Amino acid sequence: MEITAEERINLQKKLNNKEKLNNDEIEKLINLLDQTKLGLKLFYSQKEETIKGKNIKNYYYFFEEINNLEIKNANKKSNLLIEGDNYFALKHLIKINQKVDIIYIDPPYNTKNKDFIYNDIIISKDDDFKHSKWLSFMKRRLKLAQKLLSDNGVIFVSIDDNEQAYLKVLMDEIFGEENFVSNIFVESNPSGRSDSKDIANSGDYLLIYAKNKLINEFNKIIFDPKESDLKGYSIQKVGSNSRREDRPNLYYPIYINYETQKILLDNFEKSIKIFPKLSNNEDGRWIYSKETLQSMIEKNLIEIVKNTKNKYIIKWLDKEKKEGLDLKLKSSWHTNGIYSLSNSVAKIQLLSIINSKEAESMTPKNIDLLKLIIKFSSSNKNSIILDFFAGSGTTGHAVMQLNKEDNGNRQFILIEKENNIAKDICYERLYRIINGKGTKGKQDFKWLKKNKPYLKENLKYIKIKLEDKINGNYEEIESSKDLYKSSFNISNININEIS
Ligand SMILES: C[S@@+](CC[C@H](N)C(=O)[O-])C[C@H]1O[C@@H](n2cnc3c(N)ncnc32)[C@H](O)[C@@H]1O
């Protein structure tokens, strides 16, 4: 028998007042003691969630495809934008046996700024059950998300200090501690928050879990290569111990033909003989023995390159580094020459597409963060990426950008509850970057100055409608079954009932 946070507080009050407990309460108390002796236990809020005062389980939900919002540019499967509560959308995706490879979510952080609505009420910082309510909300959805992940799928959740610790325990419970991959610190606000009292908070977290860590393989990423990693190093020793007399056996000739770029340790036709020379014209020495250099030549790791002074130098290339083979991502991510993780840049990215008051009030994530997540998770260019707290649609934007960069066919499914955000911001953003103009014909937004529209992408807009099971209009629900089926042509559909 599970005990809710509210029941736990009531029990506590009764015990403090030395009130008599009834049989049900005694059983709950025994259960509670059993559970807590196992270790840390999260307490969830009321078991049931409500919408307009009614239990969410008392709703029929059905899907209406908004045909006049469909974008159809290419002969390929469509991306989806679903407007409605993600609880119903996730349930439906499970019902049609949809699987997704990558899930990214950026849920309400449950901050002091009243960003989280539960059971139709804005949760305030003084609510005694604020953590339990948030956990109940997330647990219900994360359990569905876990079912949706493909066998080698992976989920990323952005979160900050308000709920990070609680979320970690919840995710351990749902995905299994053994599938925990990392808790990344993402430096999204490098200058630090000015309203932090003691330590200026400069970022948030990204919790990563695999569906099954044993079979999951992540990609190595060139996250922040140093120029020298890519350009290679001179094979001549510099600095201390660099003279011939320091290591006489590392002074030997190399034969080179600059035109054909051929290098050998023995003389060959049209080659010239090179010895290591220091800048003061003294004899120098190489870094490698003849044997090592020979094997590097055979592995194609030695190159002749021109330096900035237009002089030839012989370099060894760390090919593994060049190809990113040994570059493991570290657990703290910062903006660098390749990826920007900054939230303020993310806002500029959004405003360059939609410059409205509504867009100004959003807290979008950076497109590069999503690109990094997708590249790290899967090299499958056909993967399906789900974001069920879509907001302004950054995840969809990043998927299309990556498809453009590597000719991929990835698809995205976005879910956003609020109509004004789903339609006016998320849909409008995706429409503009796909078509190069706004839904009302606007063509002078800044993004177009530096980018070309994606064109070769499709999008379907689906609205979730709810009917009260008790007072519902069954005829409408029945007739919606076909629509409901046709909404998702991204997988085989197998539904027997709506509920
Ligand atoms: C922090 S924002 C996500 C921002 C997004 N990552 C971006 O880059 O724009 C969270 C979004 O989740 C939406 N949301 C909250 N509860 C939801 C629910 N139950 N179902 C679907 N969307 C929900 C909110 O309306 C809000 O737009």
From TrEMBL:
<dbReference type="GO" id="GO:0008170">
    <property type="term" value="F:N-methyltransferase activity"/>
</dbReference>
<keyword id="KW-0949">S-adenosyl-L-methionine</keyword>
<comment type="similarity">
    <text>Belongs to the N(4)/N(6)-methyltransferase family.</text>
</comment>
<keyword id="KW-0489">Methyltransferase</keyword>
<dbReference type="InterPro" id="IPR002295">
    <property type="entry name" value="N4/N6-MTase_EcoPI_Mod-like"/>
</dbReference>
<dbReference type="GO" id="GO:0003677">
    <property type="term" value="F:DNA binding"/>
</dbReference>
<dbReference type="InterPro" id="IPR002052">
    <property type="entry name" value="DNA_methylase_N6_adenine_CS"/>
</dbReference>
<dbReference type="GO" id="GO:0032259">
    <property type="term" value="P:methylation"/>
</dbReference>
<keyword id="KW-0175">Coiled coil</keyword>
<protein>
    <submittedName>
        <fullName>| / type III restriction-modification system methylase / 576815:578464 Forward</fullName>
    </submittedName>
</protein>
<keyword id="KW-0808">Transferase</keyword>
<feature type="coiled-coil region">
    <location>
        <begin position="1"/>
        <end position="28"/>
    </location>
</feature>
<dbReference type="InterPro" id="IPR002941">
    <property type="entry name" value="DNA_methylase_N4/N6"/>
</dbReference>
<dbReference type="Pfam" id="PF01555">
    <property type="entry name" value="N6_N4_Mtase"/>
</dbReference>
<feature type="domain" description="DNA methylase N-4/N-6">
    <location>
        <begin position="100"/>
        <end position="423"/>
    </location>
</feature>
<dbReference type="InterPro" id="IPR029063">
    <property type="entry name" value="SAM-dependent_MTases_sf"/>
</dbReference>
